[in-house]
Specification:
Blueprint lengths: L5 H25 L7 H13 L1 H15 L2 E9 L5 E3 L5 E2 L3 E8 L7 E10 L3 E3 L11 E5 L2
Antiparallel strand pairs: 1-2, 1-7, 2-3, 4-5, 4-7, 5-6
Length: about 140
């Protein structure tokens, strides 16, 4: 059982994190230390040490987590050698995001939707489970 209100707190934090991503981008692209006060320059040094990547990643993951489920289906290899969701025109190529239905832990009976993407190196694979076969895997996409 999750802590009471936890998911709602993350939902509320999502737009704030997006604003922080924008603020850090502004600092990197437009901040002028010559026109700033000593205290502002100190803040900027601290903020830049946070690194925008952690906020970018959080923003991306929260958006994806809260997005509505679009389509769900099994992966099949098409005539072009790529994978597509059976019965749809949705084709997955390098960098395609999805969630794959897998055991919560690799050897457990509990199932969950695991966020992943599909990449290619000799053949296609899930980044979150590189040894798992794509053919027949149940996947879903969000936001479509």
């Amino acid at each position: 059982m999750l802590r009471q209100g936890m998911i709602e707190r993350f939902r509320k934090a999502s737009p704030i994190i997006r604003e922080l991503v924008d603020d850090l981008a502004w600092i990197q692209n437009e901040f002028n230390p010559e026109k700033a006060t000593e205290e502002e320059r100190t803040y900027v040094k601290h903020l830049l040490s946070l690194g925008s990547n952690c906020f970018d990643e959080s923003d991306w993951r929260l958006k994806r987590m809260f997005a509505a489920v679009g389509k769900k289906g099994r992966l099949i290899r098409n005539k072009a050698g790529r994978f597509e969701m059976e019965g749809t025109d949705i084709e997955f190529t390098c960098g395609s995001s999805c969630e794959v239905y897998v055991p919560y832990f690799s050897d457990e009976e509990w199932m969950t939707w695991l966020p992943t993407s599909i990449e290619y190196s000799g053949d296609y694979y899930f980044t979150a489970r590189p040894d798992m076969k794509l053919e027949g895997a149940l996947v879903r996409i969000k936001g479509r």
